[in-house]
Design goal:
- By secondary structure, the chain is an alpha/beta fold.
- The chain has 2 domains: 148 residues, 3-Layer(aba) Sandwich (Rossmann fold), CATH 3.40.50; 118 residues.
- Helix content is 53%, strand content 9%.
- The protein has 10 helices and 5 strands.
- A 5-stranded parallel sheet has the order 2-1-3-4-5, with helices on both faces.
- β1, α1 and β2 form a beta-alpha-beta unit.
- α7 packs antiparallel against α9.
- The longest helix is centred in the last third of the chain and has 29 residues.
- The two termini are 34 Å apart.
Length: 291
């Protein structure tokens, strides 16, 4: 089944700037073909009526951008929304009639029109919970609006941070390898005396596992970014195995190199890959994803 689309309903003389800001943010998280706005969604020479009707038929969420001139009025003093052929009225009324999720978006202090001023087919709009978007908080408000749209479409929100999959894989693999290393050291201690260096190395490994996994044991560890956790973890891992390597003998050198140097290098490379992934996925000339 095809995934539902988002339809942005607005008046060009009322909300053109806001509509482009909303569109640009939505297409950061959805394919462009799933976000319909007349400027982007209708090719030159295409039948306007047919294209709009087709877009509404595939719509899962309709955003109604309501500025201070949304209702408007003709020279005669009659609101445009009272005209049966008004495009905004047709878009919103069709969505309401079809049971499509409609989200009113009040722009820069605009208020919801009084129910009595709307045609009967638009009056259900006034009972819907609206979202405020202000020019002074545009980035934050559009972020919140995007979250509401994504949830209404059944999409995951908030989005995974760039490199999240890399971090999950590497941190899990590190925990596995560190566990094997500790197990081998503990087995070795059964056949010999475990000196202070070995004990210190094991303690550092345990602490390092908490750092790499960003365990909620201390605010400083919990607040680390994923890249910071991997970089710090790589250093601590080398220190821990360096301590144990110094206390070992020739028989354990290969084990320490395998379970010391290789995991540390893996952590460093993962942090570098996450940084590259984040840089490549960041929108050009746009603000950070987080407001």
């Amino acid at each position: 089944m095809a995934k539902k689309k988002v339809f942005i309903s607005y008046r060009r003389d009322d909300a053109a700037g806001f509509s482009h800001a909303v569109y640009d943010r939505l297409v950061e998280f959805l394919p462009e073909k799933r976000v319909f706005m007349d400027v982007h969604g209708i090719d030159t020479g295409a039948d306007f009526t047919q294209r709009l009707n087709a877009a509404l038929a595939q719509c899962g969420v309709l955003l109604v951008l309501i500025g201070k001139r949304w209702a408007g009025s003709e020279a005669s003093g009659v609101s445009r929304l009272q005209e049966a052929s008004d495009w905004v009225r047709l878009e919103v009324a069709t969505a309401l009639r079809r049971g499509i999720a409609v989200i009113p978006v009040l722009l820069d202090g605009a208020s919801m029109p009084a129910q009595g001023t709307l045609s009967e087919d638009l009056q259900p709009l006034t009972r819907l919970n609206a979202v405020d978007v202000r020019a002074s908080r545009l980035n934050a408000d559009v972020w919140d609006l995007t979250g509401a749209v994504m949830k209404a479409l059944g999409e995951t929100w908030p989005p995974a941070e760039p490199g999240a999959a890399i971090y999950a894989t590497v941190s899990s693999l590190y925990a596995f390898l560190a566990g094997i290393g500790l197990l081998l050291m503990l087995i070795g201690s059964v056949f010999g005396t475990m000196d202070a260096a070995i004990l210190l190395g094991i303690a550092l490994i345990v602490v390092n596992a908490l750092v790499v996994l960003r365990a909620s044991v201390h605010p400083r560890i919990r607040d680390l970014t994923r890249q910071q956790a991997l970089r710090i973890g790589a250093v601590l891992h080398l220190v821990a195995f360096g301590v144990m390597f110094g206390a070992g003998d020739g028989d354990t050198a290969m084990v320490i190199i395998m379970f010391g140097v290789i995991p540390a290098a893996l952590l460093f490379l993962a942090a570098f890959a996450m940084q590259r992934r984040g840089n490549s996925s960041a929108p050009v000339a746009r603000a950070s994803l987080r407001p």
